Amino acid sequence: SVSRVAQLRREVLSLLIEIRQKHTLEEKTSLRSGKTESVRRTIKYIKENYREKLTLDVISRNIFCDKYTLCRDFKKMTGKTVVEYINSYRCKKAFELITEGKSVFESAEECGFNNMSFFTKMFKRYIGTLPSQCKKDRI
Fold it and tell me: Which is higher by pLDDT, 2 or 96?
């Protein structure tokens, strides 16, 4: 009968809508976990290689991710750009070295900074004081 066919069509349509919604949700979850994974791998790579020359090209090649996608996802998930994260992490490591007794120059160099004025500017931005002041405070 016509009403039975209409009822079956409605049920099939309802099932298809439910399947599509579930698939879309799983797709979004999968994409989100993929983004999380690439950001996690980026942070791990930076922490293992902060002494080296790091560029977006080098990082994206090593974690197998498009650099533009990486930049967007990283900023969205951490609130920092990749470069800000690198400089912040390097400054924290330099601070540790300075407080352990290394010279400001050695600390900067060991942490991947090859320009002292840039290092001083970044250190002040991320640590809140000048590297020379940390050295004085230690003494």
Answer: 96
pLDDT, mean of residues 73-96: 95
Helix (H, G, I), strand (E, B) or coil at 139: coil
| The amino acid at 46 | I
Tokens (6 digits) for 14: 């309802």
DSSP 8-class letter at 55: -
Give me the sign of the Cα torsion angle 114, 123, 98, 135: positive
Q: Residues 95, 128: contact at Cβ < 8 Å?
A: no
Distance of CA 18 to the CA centre of its chain: 35
Looking at residues 81-85, what average pLDDT do you find? 96
Tokens of 30: 């999968």
What are the start-end ranges of the H helices in 79-130?
82-99, 104-110, 116-127
- Between CA 139 and CA 101 the distance in angstroms is 9
The rounded distance, in Å, linking the Cα atoms of 119 and 48 is 20
Measured in degrees and rounded to the nearest 5, phi and psi for residue 100 equal -85, -5
- Non-local (6+) Cβ contacts of 5 within 8 A are none
Provide the pLDDT for residue 130: 93
